[in-house]
Amino acid sequence: MILKKLLLLGAVCFVPCGLGAQGLPELTFQNINFWPVAKSGNSVRLPVEDRHGFLWVGSTMGAFRYDGHEIHGYFQSTVDTATLNENVISSLYSDADGIIWAGTAGGGLNRYEPITDHFVRLITPDGTLGSIGGFPHIALVDDHPVHWLPANNGLGRYDVRTNSYTIHTPETPAKRSPGFAFRFVTPDNHDADLLWVGGLDGLYRFRMSSLSFEYIDMHFNDARQPGRFMLHDGYFINDTTLCSGSWGAGTVCYSVSQDQWVRYHTHPAGAYWGNIVFTVLPASQTRLWVAGTAGFGQLDLGERSYEFYRWDPAAPTAIDSSFWYNTLCRTTQGNMVVTRTHGISISSPVDSVPTRLSFPPLLRAVYIDDVPMHSDTAVHYVREIQLSEPSRDITLALLAPGYYGPEQPEFECFLEGHDSDWRPILEGRTARYTDLPGGTFTFRYRASLDGDEWLYGTPLLVDRNVFFWRTPWFIGLVVTGIVAIIFIIYQLNLRNVRREAALKAEFDARLAEVELQALRAQMNPHFMFNSLNSIKHFILTHEPLKASEYLTNFATLIRAILHNSRERLIPMSKELEALMLYIELEQLRFDNQFEVHCRISEPLDMDSIMIPPLIMQPYVENAIWHGLLHKQGGGVLTIDIQSSHDKLYCMIEDNGIGRAAAQAMRSKSATRHKSMGMGITQDRIQILNKMDAYGIEVQVEDKYDDQGQPTGTRVTIEIPLT
Fold this sequence. Notes:
Oligomer: single chain
Number of helices: 8
Radius of gyration: 60 Å
């Protein structure tokens, strides 16, 4: 019988009843069905928008959450305590922190935990409270929230701090069976200690401080059905007028200041089933949104008339059909949400089209290598994602909760550490990254309606772990190790090369020293041979005095040569002393056929200038024997010592016959006693330059007069001063 009456109501409730003068706002609807067909035993009710913009509804089959993209259900499980303690949801509301609470028909209370995405059971449905009504109230007591729960058996007081509850009832028994069946609690606009509680037994005032009730007698000025009516909800539309939906009297309003009731019937004939209003919601000072068996629409309080939205099967944006329209809420964006028997209808914004989003974008889903990511944390609370080998691809689906308009929001994302700038998300509200390298990235995302004003989602850390042999530190370590090995091998080879070079250099130095010593040893007998020939000449020519003088000077010179030849370097003064002794011997031998001039530039310190021994003597010997010996009188030997630009210049100059003529004439003495000093000295200079990098240079010049005739030879020895 009840089913037939409801079906009849379903057929007539879309006919406009008493059209108001102002008219309904022109709205379009999105119809979302939780079940494929409407059944009288099913009911969707109590829409609530949470702090993220998600839309929650209760039902006789559990709780549901709609994020604008998909519906997620929450149900009782006998094996999992992190679920609802009952599936029949009779109350669904949000606290000051945006947390969802669910009361059940058996008197249970559950709190939603958004991080873990499950419900916590707080009050066991043991029948003490009875069914909890749809519209509780949360008051602060000593800065702690206290939930006032309208219930079948009275008014429940739940203390969040102590997780305990008590039940309070009026002193007088309920005037109607099966009890008080409270359905709403509304705070007074002026008195913070006063609550208004309504239900099956009518309306009560309740004092929180004294825990006392005062019954408000329900009397009407019209003659229609005097008496009490069950009240479903209650809202103050102004300072003193409380309006409620009722079972059988349509919409009723109580003037607190005048203690007067007014009812607004939805059905013209006053039929009981046609005058059931489940929910009212203030639309303005003079109009109410209403939902009930007659449909969803508005009541004009001044005109005392209703106007309802029609169901039109040919119009996809019309509100869907239903046995009745149950409860209402208005979203932050201004959409009206109407619960129906088997779903909800979401209207377009009532006042104006929104130009901005009301809630930041959220993650809807995460796919790793196209497989949904499993997490014990709700996906929009995930703050870090670990990608381990061999996973390399990640897809992140986004949504803009709380927005139901026709224009699609713009989404952009930026993977910090990978992207160079924000990039638009063009298809499916999903951002996809493939072949991510190893490293840590920060996924940032944002949404906008106009492309100018953006709301940013919570950043997500993406940590891409790769096999350790593919990590930068390992690759760097390997490269460093290879470089280190190459460097060590190079250093070892270099050390070996340097050791071999050092050994070779040491060997070469010793060899050069031995060669130099050998050359010096050759110099000494060479000069001695020449000197002994001179002594022999004096003896054979019966010149004993000259022989004696020569022998004395020769002995002094031999002592100096033997002493100097042991040193690598000797002072310039000692070199000149030995050289002058040698020249005196040659002058004595050749009966003073040539003169000697020795010039030393100022201010040279002959004792501090160090040069190799016997470096000048062979060139002086060569000037005498091959230049001056064949000149007919007036021979001059000049030795000039001077310095310039950190170099010492030793010039040996003669005015002899020149090198070409000397080679052509070749005296008998020169033929028999060919001088070896020049060749030995050149070899010494090469070895000295090679060993110690002396940089000694020798230049030999032939001198000529204006007619091109040879006038002698000049030898310049250039020795760096160090």
